[in-house]
Write a structure and sequence with these properties.
This protein is of the alpha/beta class and about 280 residues long. It is built from twelve helices and seven strands.
Length: about 280
């Protein structure tokens, strides 16, 4: 980049990393469409209570292969949602709210909080059924977040049998401290103001700060699975990184006490000269 802030092109590589298939261009979103026959069939199947996946598979079977269709399963589901059930994007949030109310009517111990933005879009939501609320009394907790456009979160516990138990679910629009504050407030309201003794999360600064502020008695730890998943990306620049990754995994999973881990960890860092690695030092 020059001083004036303009990028200059020094090299152009026109070769694709994969073969181009012009004959498959119809599978791009702007080219996919459902014929009148397909739409009518979808409507009939929906009235008969046939699942969208089964409907799509019937089209695949008739065509001989999914490659012979001009649409994908998602198009079938979208048509059912937007046309057959006549639910617009703005109605999605309202329908979700009605569903939560129906669940509450069926069981008074079903808990939910729903906050809509301009009455059309979900800002944040939390819900837990009676079984989940009861299971929390006997479970340690971790919180997991998935990253679509609107974040989907789940509180999962491990009971005294070592079994995973769903304790609650959430939808949040933003991953900021205020969003997690509202989420944890809903959790505390649902669980009788009782915070988890221990909670495991991904390495998210906003979650960490929100827990410190609003659940100060909770012991917060990062999920080891998320940390270990990052190892190949963090260490692939080192010579012999495969051996490094294997020995690091051995240290992590086979150190059964705190003292043993610190001892084995220091030996590992010294052996491979990793004392200056900031990521390893911060974890």
């Amino acid at each position: 980049m020059k001083d004036v802030g303009v990028w200059t092109i020094s090299k152009v590589v026109l070769n694709h990393s994969h073969p181009c298939c012009p004959e498959r261009v119809e599978m791009l979103k702007q080219h996919r469409e459902l014929s009148m026959f397909v739409r009518r069939t979808i409507e009939i199947h929906e009235k008969a209570g046939i699942r969208p996946s089964k409907t799509y598979q019937s089209f695949v079977a008739a065509a001989g292969s999914h490659r012979e269709l001009g649409f994908i399963e998602k198009d079938v589901r979208n048509y059912i949602t937007r046309e057959v059930r006549n639910i617009s994007e703005e109605d999605d949030a309202k329908e979700f709210g009605k569903y939560l109310l129906r669940m509450k009517e069926k069981n008074k111990k079903f808990f939910f909080k729903l906050n809509l933005e301009s009455d059309h879009y979900i800002k944040h939501a939390f819900w837990a059924d009676a079984r989940s609320r009861a299971a929390f009394e006997y479970s340690e907790t971790w919180f997991h977040l998935t990253p679509p456009i609107i974040q989907t979160g789940s509180f999962v516990g491990v009971n005294h049998h070592g079994q995973s138990t769903l304790l609650g679910c959430a939808l949040i629009k933003n991953e900021n401290i205020q969003s997690f504050k509202r989420l944890f407030e809903c959790w505390l309201c649902c669980m009788g103001r009782k915070a988890p003794k221990v909670i495991l999360t991904d390495q998210c600064a906003s979650i960490q700060r929100a827990i410190e502020l609003y659940m100060p008695t909770t012991i917060h730890r990062w999920c080891i699975w998320h940390i270990m998943k990052k190892i190949p990306n963090k260490l692939n620049g080192y010579k012999g990184h495969i051996d490094i990754e294997q020995e690091m995994s051995h240290v992590v999973w086979n150190s059964y006490t705190k003292d043993a881990f610190h001892r084995n960890w220091n030996v590992f860092l010294t052996k491979y000269g990793l004392g200056g690695n900031k990521w390893l030092s911060s974890n």
